[in-house]
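Researcher: We are triaging several targets before committing to wet-lab work. For this one, the compound of interest is magnesium ion. I'm pasting the protein sequence and the ligand SMILES. What I need is the predicted three-dimensional arrangement of the protein with the ligand bound, expressed as structure tokens, so it can go straight into our comparison scripts without reformatting.
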Amino acid sequence: MRSVQGVRRGLVCSASLHRRHLSTTAASRDAPSTHREKAAVVFDIDGVLVRGKKALQGAKEALKLLRDGDLPFTFLTNGGGITESNKAEELTTLLDTEVSPDQVQMSHTPMREVAQRYTDRRVMVVGSKRFLDVAKSCGFSDIITPQDFLQEWPNLYPYRKVETRPKGPLPEAVVILHDPQDWALEAQVLCDILSGSLAAGEEHSPHLYASNPDFLYSAAHHTPRFGQGAFTTALEHLFEKLHGRPLPVTYYGKPNAVVYRYATRILEAEVRRIRSLPAADNVTFDRIYAIGDNPKADVRGANRAGLPWTSVLVRTGVFSGEDNDPDDPAHIVSHDVHAAVKMIVERRETERTGQTG
Ligand SMILES: [Mg+2]
């Protein structure tokens, strides 16, 4: 006969076993699982879906095909100067489909990680349009522009007369967020700051970050216009000629690898949202189709990123060749975005049918 103590011990044991069983069950229920997505699409915007302020032919139908086919998609552009929310509103209007800001990756979007490194530290921000709104939305808090910096250091650029004010701390980083529009002043001030010469003998070497390496971009004029990359190229040449050493620059924007790592995270979040998956679940992709019109940015970036990225080149923007681009050949060339999406949806269906049949 078991003693009361033995019975109690037995109860304790079975209770702790039960607790262990429950916790194991809970753990297995809460353990993140892996969701496998067969195909997803990442769109470049200009020259693929829109040109200027108009949707390109077939763009609206392409997005409808994707929604009907239940394929996840996001947007990845080297454009900037406005926030992701503003861009999402613009796309919603132009493309007749609801676009969330979380689906939009601008050239500056991954630079949130730069902002985190410089929390409460002074950063010089360069750009045009609504670049100060963009800087704040990225998380930069202590911001100064080259034009405002001139008020603290009025002798840096003698051609501009400004009201002076007491000197603040020197910027600890310089971030180009959109196309500069005051090149002479900006080139002079940036060369001075980045050389460390304003620190009067103290160690001071702020780093330069640039959101978009594009040398040219398409606008209303019949030939392309200088982009942010043209300014950075000029700045690098000026700096090296002046100081005899290269200017270190960390570039964001396509075709850089950091952009594609970030784009994968945005796409994973989109899949969790539309499939109602727990935030902890892993998402994998068999194929991520990157549809773009610029071989040097869209195709080169997707090709370098490797699988599951698959480059798709359309002929409605920068590229208009008959065959493929000779320097950066795409995996697939399509006439336009509608043809590209139709092929992707059909290919996904064939793979699904082939595997289940
Ligand atoms: Mg484009």
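Researcher: Any quick observations?
Model: The radius of gyration is 26 Å.
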